[in-house]
Amino acid sequence: MSNPVLDVPPGPPPASWQEGEVRARRSASRRRWRRLALLAAGWVAMLAVWQLASDLLSPTVLPSPATVGDEMWEIVESGDFFEDFLASVGKTFAGFGVAAVVGAPVGYLMGRYTYWRGFFHDGVTVAGTIPALVYAVMSLIIFGLSDMGPILAVALVSAPYVAINVAEGIRGVDRSLVTMSKAFGRSQRQIRREVFVPTIVPFVFAAVRMSFAVAWKVEALTEVFGGSSGVGFQIRTQYQLFSIRGVLAWMLLFIAFMLIIERLVLRRLENRMLAWRPTERVGR
Q1: DSSP letters of 222-254?
Q2: When you count CB atoms within 10 A of the terminal residue's CB, does the N or C end of the chain come out lower?
Q3: What are the C-alpha distances in Å from 166 to residues 161, 169, 281?
Q4: Cα dist. 261→173, 216, 264 in Å?
Q5: Where is the chain membrane-spanning (predicted)?
Q6: Which one is predicted more confidently, 93 or 188?
Q7: When comparing pLDDT for 174 and 86, which is higher?
Q8: pLDDT band at 15 (very low <50, low <70, confident <90, very high)
């Protein structure tokens, strides 16, 4: 017997469905343009406040946006920026690699076994509360004027974030899935790969997003104090030359490119890795 509710007539969808899809696309387009307009308005307001402050204080105290922009263009055009920028990015990601190698296993043990959580919990919590400045100074004391100082500082700052988020992801695993997997004869290796890993991936990306925002700042700070290359080293050089324009130019270039990496690289990678999640949109 035919069910009129379940039977769908063949052929193209009804006009009402097409109209609803068109309205949804238009609504999404309007929201996207609204966000872009608000973003542009925020930048315009920030530059206007900067220009007003420059006029009130003095261009020698606070250079205008146009002056700093010219200096930024000269730095990029000379080719110096890319060499120092790549040095800073390399040290940042090397520190991330060390943090992942150390923090992920610690987080897994903390989330998987109660006694390991008791063993690591206080140490990870204390490591996460230590100011980044302390890590920067300590790294320079240990390694002096070398590239290892910034790498160690980034690793020390990032590892607690990775460990804590991985532990939370492990504890968030649905235990009924683990029980069902064991009932169907899955090995421990298969359970880790097919149950635990997909569950903790969102938590790992959350840790990366949070720690990256802190890591590149402490990396630049370590270079300012005692680096021999990188953007922080150039900022310190401009400071020694009493060039406020140079300090602001290098700082803003570094911030701009790090934001590009975070939004265009990390966010796209996160969207690709978490595309299997049907109930939420990643990177909104």
Answers
A1: HHHHH-SSSHHHHHHHHHHTT-HHHHHHHHHHH
A2: N
A3: 8, 5, 21
A4: 30, 11, 5
A5: 33-53, 93-111, 123-145, 151-174, 195-216, 247-266
A6: 93
A7: 86
A8: low
pTM of the model: 0.69
Does CATH place domain 65-273 in 2.60.120.10?
no
Q: How confident is the model at residue 263 (pLDDT cuts 50, 70, 90)?
A: confident
Two structure tokens written together for 144: 């002096």
- pLDDT digit string, tens, across residues 238-256: 888 888 888 888 888 888 8
Amino acid residing at 184: F
Domain residue extents for the chain:
14-62, 65-273
Q: What is the CA radius of gyration of the chain?
A: 25
Contact assessment for residue 218 and residue 157, using Cβ atoms and an 8 Å cutoff:
yes
Written as one letter, the residue type at 245 is R
Specify the long-range contacts of residues 203-206, CB closer than 8 Å, at least 24 apart.
203/165, 203/166, 203/168, 203/169, 203/172, 204/104, 204/162, 204/165, 204/166, 204/169, 205/266, 205/270, 205/273, 205/274, 206/165
